[in-house]
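A reminder before we start the practical. When you read a complex entry, don't treat the lines as separate problems. The point of joint prediction is that each chain is placed relative to the others, so the output describes one connected object in space. Small molecules and nucleic acid strands, if listed, are placed in the same frame. In the example below there are two entries. Take a minute to note the order of the lines before looking further.
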Amino acid sequence: MSLLQKLSKQLSEYQYKGHQFSCLPMTGEQEVLRVEVSELKEMPIFVTVTDTQIICIAYLFNKDEIYTAKEPELNQYMLELNVPIPLSSFAIVDDYYVIFGALSCGSTLESLSDELVTLASNSIDSLQALEEFIK
Amino acid sequence: MNIITKLLTAIRGGAREIGEAVVDTQSLRIFEQEIHDSKENLVEAKEGLTEIVAKKMAAERKLKSLQSQITENEGYAVQALEKSDEALALEVAAKIAKLDDKAETLAEDVASYEKNFSVLKSQIQEAEKIIAEHERELAMVKTRESVQQATKSVTQTISANESSIGSARDSLERIKQKQENEQDKLDAGIQLRKDMDGDDLDKKLKESGIKHEKHSAEAVLARLKKK
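Here is the predicted structure of the whole assembly.
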């Protein structure tokens, strides 16, 4: 069983600060787990495992979805928000603005759950905070 | 060029498969093999280090025992001299000379083991640093690739299935809807509470006789009597 499969099984049976996790493995070149955090389902988290890290990503918006003229301003704000936002950071993957967190592969289930709940909350808050930049 | 500079160059060049752009698959495999080999060498070096320490300890033990033999024999020689037995003293002295010889060789061995030990130890530390550095570089390249592939998987699911990454506007709409629902529930709860509090007050007023029951038996009787 891969680490991701193991985590999926453990998460499905786990509760963290009143939240549950519903996990859906996705097929593809890279193993990805789609996780919905209860009460925060609007922003699903995509979990990927590499040799060294567990990477959790929420996709905020595509570059096409933002006002081109406001892009530099948006980038500036996101960089400035990066440090104060707990556990999560902003990034760009291909054409997507994402918010993500990375954990060591040896992290406990509790740390991973904390990461997922925090990331889901941060992604919802960020999306609302950055609404003016979205078409 | 450091690895982050290489990554940046690849991103600037618009490379999609970053791993391929930074180092081709073949070199990536060679790089991984190198790390693997270095690690094996490191294990061997560590075993060598243990061996040297063991040898050094054995030599030191022997040296100690030789030194106590020398001290012992020196005592015998002095006693022989006290008894004016020159011949015996000379024989003992010859033995001491031999022991001295051995002790000197052993002391040289110990010194050489010590030198080897420190050289090997600094080599191991150096190798460990290099391996950690290579692993960090490799992790960066591989992580970038994994994340891109994961994103590909996620975006492909959108087109194949229901949306996995829906549009930001849709997500915002859903978030707003949920928050409104929650606010409605909260308001409903507050209203319910108010209603219940109101009921309480009514009850109290009726109990104290300030407010009368609308449909009390007395009221009905009074109404009937009027007819």
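Discuss with your neighbour: Chain B has a mean pLDDT of 83. What might explain this?
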